[in-house]
Amino acid sequence: MRWLLGVTAVFYRLKVRATGTWSRRGVSGLSRALVYEKHGDPAASLGLENLKLPDLGATGVHVKMLAAPINPSDLNMIQGTYALLPDLPAVGGNEGVGQVLKVGSKVTRLRPGDWVIPADAGLGTWRTEVVAQEDLLLKVPSDIPIESAATLGVNPCTAYRMLLDFEALTPGDSVIQNAANSGVGQAVIQIARAMGIRTINVVRDRPDIQTLMDRLTLLGADHVIPEEMLRKPEMKDLFRSVPKPRLALNCVGGKSTTEMLRHLEHGGTMVTYGGMSKQPVTVPVSALIFNDVTLRGFWVTQWKRDHALNKEAMNEMIASLCTLIRQGKMTPPACKQTPLEEYRVAVEESMKPFSSSKQILVM
Ligand SMILES: NC(=O)c1ccc[n+]([C@@H]2O[C@H](COP(=O)([O-])OP(=O)(O)OC[C@H]3O[C@@H](n4cnc5c(N)ncnc54)[C@H](OP(=O)(O)O)[C@@H]3O)[C@@H](O)[C@H]2O)c1
């Protein structure tokens, strides 16, 4: 899909694979980028390279990247298992925040100094600098924490849309979600809390589960439960203090999802947006017959494309999320910053289970 890496395609490569030292570091007109030439293990497939920046032209925007997270979909793209696969070689990373350095003469919405995030997947954000067309970038306020800006465009947007677009929830209603400690899950907890919606948060058991439960409770989670509890009679006690959920958000698949479905309110909706266990979704027959549940899916990339011409919807979402951030109602996900040069450690860390921490590359 050539369009996907429109930005990368206009780059031409200077030196092949660097080996850890950077002889041309700081040379103007060059960007250092994490490039992969074939699909495979992410840490092994990526290499730092010097890429020459294309001319700015009248409609180009020259951006210095500041920070970019490592998300599961970035890794899946490198592994070759994601729904969108760019032409290779490609630069890794689909979201992040950068600062505008220079704009072409016909650029109207952006000015030097502005902070920007990608408007779509495929920008290749794991690099120091990029020249992109204006319509591939969205302006975000520069008075929010850099970790919030770097992680704003995918997970909080996904959480926001899923809470708003599938069920007409009102204060007091409840939502159940698995992988509640994920980036999306943390955003769901905080946005739901701001909307007056109660959350039942399912996490995988681990030796220090109480620490995780406390952390999610501090974020605003009403209930945090280990996955095993979904199968226990104690769930009846829980539903004495909170209404049965009208919305279930599924990021896992397999048993976790099947059990979660059993607790959905009659006529409720389950939205699947991730498949971290790599297991299919198995629906209990009773959930369909006696509870008439609806199964839906959501992909934020598709939503952004469907709304590319409707800037109002996108601007409203970004503005609402930034208001929550400024009000201290939405914090960035628990994260660890790593310099771009040390990407290998960050990529390996991001693939470990039970880490509960997002890796953010800083440039
Ligand atoms: N459809 C969309 O538009 C959309 C948008 C954003 C994200 N996503 C998807 O949502 C998922 C989460 O993304 P994120 O950035 O929020 O992730 P993240 O912050 O990296 O968190 C990953 C989550 O997955 C859990 N997990 C990992 N391996 C698992 C397994 N084998 N079984 C069950 N749970 C497992 C982790 O729990 P532990 O702590 O227990 O390991 C953690 O909660 C990904 O699949 C991503 O692609 C989809």
Describe this protein's structure.
This protein has 363 residues and is α/β, with parallel strands linked by helices. The protein contains 13 helices and 17 strands. It has helices at 6-9, 42-45, 72-79, 146-150, 155-165, 183-195, 209-219, 234-241, 254-261, 285-289, 300-306, 311-326, 343-350, and strands spanning 12-13, 30-36, 46-52, 60-69, 90-91, 97-103, 115-118, 129-133, 137-140, 174-177, 198-203, 223-226, 247-250, 269-272, 294-297, 335-339, 358-362. Strands 4, 6, 7, 8, 9, 16 and 17 form a seven-stranded mixed sheet that branches. Strand 13, helix 9 (254-261) and strand 14 (269-272) form a beta-alpha-beta unit. Helix 5 (155-165) packs across helix 6 (183-195). Mean pLDDT is 92; it is low at 1-27. NADP nicotinamide-adenine-dinucleotide phosphate binds next to helix 3, helix 5 and helix 6. Residues 71-73, 154-155, 158, 179, 181-184, 204, 251-252, 273-274, 276-277, 298-300, 353-354, 356, 358 line the site of NADP nicotinamide-adenine-dinucleotide phosphate.
| Estimated structural class | alpha/beta
- The counted number of beta strands is 17
| CATH topology tier name of the largest domain | Quinone Oxidoreductase, Chain A, domain 1
Annotation field: number of helices = 13
Mean pLDDT: 92
CATH architecture of the largest domain: Alpha-Beta Complex
Can you identify the CATH class of the largest domain? Alpha Beta
Strand content: 15-25%
Give a short account of the largest sheet: 7 strands, mixed
